[in-house]
Specification:
11% strand, 2 domains, two-stranded antiparallel sheet, 140 residues
């Protein structure tokens, strides 16, 4: 079994008491006595800090578990939404296009045609919109 800092300081104090430094108030005895008193204070402060760190660690672990639960709820909800979402439900004002760089499907609205350029949120690639209707291409 290892001794704590406080126990080690108490052992030193016992050794110093065995030397009867209090009976002979020499300069060295006073110095040793003061050093032991300071070590005792430091030992108590360290024990307090260790207890606080342990409590904080337990609280952090509980918060981490709670966050995992929240992530599971939130991200599972989004995954379900993606599977059930139909882009056709958006109406005629929205269009689905594919990013030529990464292949990600993007949903844009009519107002983007005024800008003429789209930035893919997945890869960051900017590309110009081709305003040719696919049905017109098939007829040619």
């Amino acid at each position: 079994m290892t001794m704590t800092i406080t126990e080690k300081v108490a052992y030193l104090k016992g050794l110093a008491d065995g030397l009867d430094l209090d009976k002979d108030p020499s300069k060295e005895g006073k110095l040793i006595s003061k050093i032991i008193d300071i070590l005792e204070d430091i030992g108590l402060a360290v024990e307090d800090l260790e207890e606080e760190v342990e409590v904080i660690g337990e609280e952090l672990e509980a918060m981490s578990e709670d966050l995992e639960d929240v992530e599971e709820i939130v991200f599972d909800e989004f995954e379900d939404d993606d599977e059930e979402f139909d882009f056709a439900d958006l109406g005629d004002d929205f269009f689905e296009i594919e990013c030529p760089e990464c292949g990600e499907d993007l949903v844009i609205d009519e107002s983007i045609f005024d800008v003429g350029e789209v930035a893919c949120p997945n890869c960051g690639n900017k590309f110009a919109l081709d305003l040719v209707d696919e049905e017109e291409e098939d007829e040619d």
